[in-house]
């Protein structure tokens, strides 16, 4: 992590800066972003690109629900406007809030982000944004990523078994083998397509590629 922190600090000019972090679904973007924010010796804030997803109702209305997570299902223009507002010196920006428990934008809640020194934007479409000062791609073997995805799906579904408000509740009583098969079908039909078609190509734009081992630990950092 020190190598990456130093590379970012070399780009930082003492004013507002943006860092983007992307990688496959389940590769660990949120955790990595939080760890990076803590390691930077400045005021850093993390925003998820999921907060800029279209609502499920909007996706359904436009026939895009089955492509949820693909670039066309995000408000990339709204993310660009947030960055532009902070670069212009605006002290706060109000953005939507995506809730994992309902897998949708919360129509009743918005969040206010105070202008940090470094804004870290993490998510599958982060490197689709042009106005980023430093771009990071998290990489790992496909077998590890799929294993992490399945483990996370099973764990989060088990946690929802007593929460009927969670979208995962409907699957909580499903036999593990059946749930595992459903999860990997979703992977093949959606997440793998998103990775191959949209996420992986953005690795070419990255200023740094961080390779993770099977324990989610940093194996190698390549600064371009």
How do the helices and strands follow one another from N- to C-terminus? HEHEHHEEEEHHEE
Q: What is the CA-CA span between the terminal residues?
A: 15 Å
Helix/strand-derived category reads alpha/beta
Strand % is 15-25%
Structure summary, number of beta strands: 8
Keywords: Kinase, Transferase
Organism: Leuconostoc lactis
InterPro entries: P-loop_NTPase (IPR027417), PRK/URK (IPR006083)
GO molecular function: ATP binding; pantothenate kinase activity
What's the short story on this structure?
The chain is α/β, with parallel strands linked by helices and 224 residues long.
Can you offer a commentary on this structure?
- The protein is α/β, with parallel strands linked by helices and 224 residues long.
- The chain contains six helices and eight strands.
- Strands 2-5-1-6-7-8 form a six-stranded mixed beta sheet, with helices on one face. Strands 3-4 form a two-stranded antiparallel sheet.
- A hairpin with a 5-residue loop joins strand 7 and strand 8.
- Helix 5 packs across helix 6.
List the helices and strands and how they pair.
Layout (H helix, E strand, L loop, with lengths): L1 H10 L5 E7 L5 H11 L4 E5 L7 H6 L14 H12 L4 E8 L4 E11 L3 E5 L11 E6 L2 H18 L16 H24 L8 E5 L5 E6 L1
Characteristic terms for this protein:
224 residues, alpha/beta, two-stranded antiparallel ribbon, P-loop_NTPase, PRK/URK, pantothenate kinase activity, ATP binding
């Amino acid at each position: 992590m020190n190598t990456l922190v130093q590379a970012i600090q070399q780009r930082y000019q003492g004013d507002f800066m943006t860092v983007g972090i992307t990688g496959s679904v389940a590769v660990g973007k949120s955790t990595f972003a939080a760890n990076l924010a803590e390691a930077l010796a400045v005021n850093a804030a993390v925003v998820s690109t999921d907060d800029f997803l279209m609502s499920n109702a909007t996706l359904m209305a436009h026939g895009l629900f089955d492509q949820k997570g693909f670039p066309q299902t995000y408000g990339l223009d709204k993310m660009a406007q947030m960055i532009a507002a902070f670069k212009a010196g605006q002290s706060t920006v109000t953005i939507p809030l995506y809730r994992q428990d309902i897998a949708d934008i919360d129509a009743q809640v918005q969040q206010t982000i105070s202008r940090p020194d470094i804004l870290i934007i993490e998510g599958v479409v982060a490197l689709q944004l042009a106005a980023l000062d430093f771009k990071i791609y998290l990489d790992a073997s496909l077998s590890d990523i799929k294993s992490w995805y399945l483990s996370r799906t099973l764990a989060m579904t088990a946690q929802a078994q007593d929460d009927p408000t969670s979208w995962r509740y409907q699957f909580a009583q499903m036999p593990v083998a059946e749930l595992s098969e459903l999860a990997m079908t979703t992977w093949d039909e959606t997440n793998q397509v998103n990775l191959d078609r949209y996420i992986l190509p953005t690795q070419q734009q990255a200023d740094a590629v961080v390779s993770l081992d099977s324990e989610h630990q940093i194996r190698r950092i390549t600064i371009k």
